[in-house]
């Protein structure tokens, strides 16, 4: 048995049904829009992450080139060196131009120019070893790429600097020859040692040994027209603890600095 419904009740039920349908549709569209928003946000985030990774990869490639040399053919070496050298030279020119300023309100008809700041881009040039199949020769280096080139590495023996290979001496000459193309370029020799014992420990152990090393090092650097010395000792007083070795190494650096300043 059905209960008869009034017209107003039927209208009310129809309105409620329409309202429920509208609410469902609203919820559905809200869900769709939320999914679209999340999808778009994810795509944008992925794109930005990808762009960041690409930029980091390019920066790392340039850094790897500076630090350990290129990994392409010899033609690629020269192109990459010229490319990075051009960027460095352009930045240097722009920095120099931007720092030029005038103050006519302070001194009539007189301009003052600030000197470009002293900054360094120090690059390590890895010497080719006997087993190298890919060699970056000195004449492929861009002389305008770096402010300083550290030739890596020499060692020590008999209380003074020694090349790792006899052929390294000719490479030294090839790198220092770049200064003819860029007189502002500084070329230094990196000397490595890996323990707190052995030859370097003996060099720093007494004032006489330190003085002999300094004198011989200066002669060696002058003979090959180098501008300085980079001591890569890893590390004084480690792994074997040697009493006062760190202080002795510091004293060696003081003596080297004093000797260099006299020239």
From TrEMBL:
<keyword id="KW-1133">Transmembrane helix</keyword>
<keyword id="KW-0378">Hydrolase</keyword>
<keyword id="KW-0812">Transmembrane</keyword>
<feature type="transmembrane region" description="Helical">
    <location>
        <begin position="28"/>
        <end position="50"/>
    </location>
</feature>
<dbReference type="GO" id="GO:0005576">
    <property type="term" value="C:extracellular region"/>
</dbReference>
<comment type="similarity">
    <text>Belongs to the glycosyl hydrolase 18 family.</text>
</comment>
<protein>
    <recommendedName>
        <fullName>GH18 domain-containing protein</fullName>
    </recommendedName>
</protein>
<keyword id="KW-0472">Membrane</keyword>
<feature type="domain" description="GH18">
    <location>
        <begin position="119"/>
        <end position="263"/>
    </location>
</feature>
<dbReference type="GO" id="GO:0006032">
    <property type="term" value="P:chitin catabolic process"/>
</dbReference>
<dbReference type="InterPro" id="IPR001223">
    <property type="entry name" value="Glyco_hydro18_cat"/>
</dbReference>
<dbReference type="InterPro" id="IPR001579">
    <property type="entry name" value="Glyco_hydro_18_chit_AS"/>
</dbReference>
<dbReference type="GO" id="GO:0005975">
    <property type="term" value="P:carbohydrate metabolic process"/>
</dbReference>
<keyword id="KW-0326">Glycosidase</keyword>
<dbReference type="GO" id="GO:0004568">
    <property type="term" value="F:chitinase activity"/>
</dbReference>
<dbReference type="InterPro" id="IPR050314">
    <property type="entry name" value="Glycosyl_Hydrlase_18"/>
</dbReference>
<dbReference type="Pfam" id="PF00704">
    <property type="entry name" value="Glyco_hydro_18"/>
</dbReference>
<dbReference type="GO" id="GO:0008061">
    <property type="term" value="F:chitin binding"/>
</dbReference>
<dbReference type="InterPro" id="IPR017853">
    <property type="entry name" value="GH"/>
</dbReference>
